[in-house]
Amino acid sequence: MFNELFEKARVGDMEAKEKIIKRLQPLILSSIRKYFNKGNEYEDLIQDGNIKILECINDYDSTKGVYFLGYVKTMLRYLYLDKHKIKIHTSLNETIADGETEILDLLVSEEQDILESIIVKEDNKKLVKALYKLTDRQREIISLYYIKNMGIQDIADKLGISYRTVVNIKGNALEKMRKGQ
Hints:
Elements: H1 2-10, H2 14-23, H3 25-35, H4 42-59, H5 68-82, E1 95-96, E2 101-102, H6 103-106, H7 114-132, H8 136-147, H9 152-159, H10 163-179
Antiparallel strand pairs: 1-2
Helix pairs in contact: 1-2, 3-4, 3-5, 4-5, 8-10, 9-10
């Protein structure tokens, strides 16, 4: 009898679908009580169960070796257990304890201050812009001195120029960068 009803529902018979839903109401109610017993939400939970049964009618695969009612029971169980996973969102501006402190005030950041990071980025942009205004030789000496931490004599030896020439080129480069020429 139930198998005939199921087959009719499977091909789209609305009356058969309604009868299946009506017959499975006790299963829906027991699943709600067992897996998500919140009295103030019963009407919504029942409707969710009805929808799940309709989905089960369409999705059921008899080749899996499971009876339809067992499949529905399992799907209702997961439906109501998943209701526990619904997250409650809280604002970081919500006050706590004394009524003056916000949750946001209690969070600690490992990163530098936002304003400080903006200033650093701006300074870096200016520095890169200034470096591109230098000649290749000036840029090379500044890079070796400040980035590679080489001494003036080491730079002179590496480039095959005199100590005094390195000092002059470095000084002219820094002056050019300061003026923004």
